[in-house]
Amino acid sequence: MAVIVxxxxxxxxxxxxxxxxVLNEQGEAFRASVEESVHTLLPLTTLEHYLQRALVDExxxxxxxxxxxxxxxxxxxxxxxxxxxxxxxxxxxxQDVMNDAHLAWMHAKPGVQRLVEQVRSVHAVVPQDGTDYxxxxxxxxxxxxxxxxxxxxxxxxxxxERAAAQRHRQxxxxxxxxxxxxxxxxxxxxxxxxxLVRPMRQLAQAAREIGNGRTGVRVPVEGQDELTALAACxxxxxxxxxxxxxxxxxxxxEDPLTGTLxxxxxxxxxxxxxxxxxxxxxxxxxxVLDLDRFKSINDRFGHAxxxxxxxxxxxxxxxxxxxxxxxxxxxxxxxxVLLPRTGKAQAERxxxxxxxxxxxxxxxxxxxxxxxxxxxxxxxxxRDATALVEAADAALYKHKQRHRAP
Length: 406
What we know:
Layout: H1 2-56, H2 70-86, H3 95-120, H4 128-211, H5 226-253, H6 263-279, E1 284-291, H7 294-301, H8 303-320, E2 326-331, E3 334-340, H9 344-363, E4 371-378, H10 385-403
Antiparallel strand pairs: 1-3, 1-4, 2-3
């Protein structure tokens, strides 16, 4: 789980840091672009303004105003061109436009320098033809400075557009990065939730199946997290429950001495098999076995010998039964044999084999008893368990009367 949480948070943290870095760089670049534009264009614009004002006044010297610092402005313009050519972003500048701007400034610079010289002699008397010449110089200087400013403005504008396009690409990349990261985060979150929900659903389904009495239910044990440990504990609990359940079922249905069905289980199975036979219109036979001389064996050899005699008879009878037949202890030394899909004639043959096999073995061993058998077949002898057992008991009593030992 810790790995999944780290995979969710790490890309978001990295992308957040990258976004902050990119946005900060864009902010710094924008401020640098604004400052560069101001520092580059302001000298040219100021110079153009002063030249136009001098032209309106016809001659700056005649206005008796303080002379502007034309020399300082020209130096600032020269420095601006130098910084643009060798600056950090010089490779981004369109060279043809830059060359045009610099050429226009070089044309304007001599006229500005001559104007500077004329301003220095402001108190001198200027002839009329000199005034006309100055106006022409002013007009040419204004034109050249304006051309230089326009070209330089185009340079800065092109550079700004290129930077804006780059910023746009970066922002688009950030947006797509966020979209992809969030998509991956959603997928990972879905996988994380599925990894939580799937084991819980498996546990819930397994618990429902166990609640319905199904055995052999287990949940997959995958991974090394807390849910895996819970699944392993659940499987251990299910195995323990099945062992306990099987023990309880065995104790509730099995005779502890002989290993046959006990009375309750025998009667329950008798009812179920009888009803199934009646629904299928098939015969169902019942044998009631009673041990001969069992009381005398107990009195003569002891109760341990009597227990051994019971187990011996059970082993003999089981060896004579077919697959699908059932043997149960009805009580004391009485047993019941359930014979599904068996008619009366066949049941009597099975009873005769049992009596003969047990009797022949008992003759050779005084501690082993013989056996008497009563047969009853449904539906002729009855259509319920009680009637069938009573009919078999009656047949058993007649058999004992005929074969009672002297």
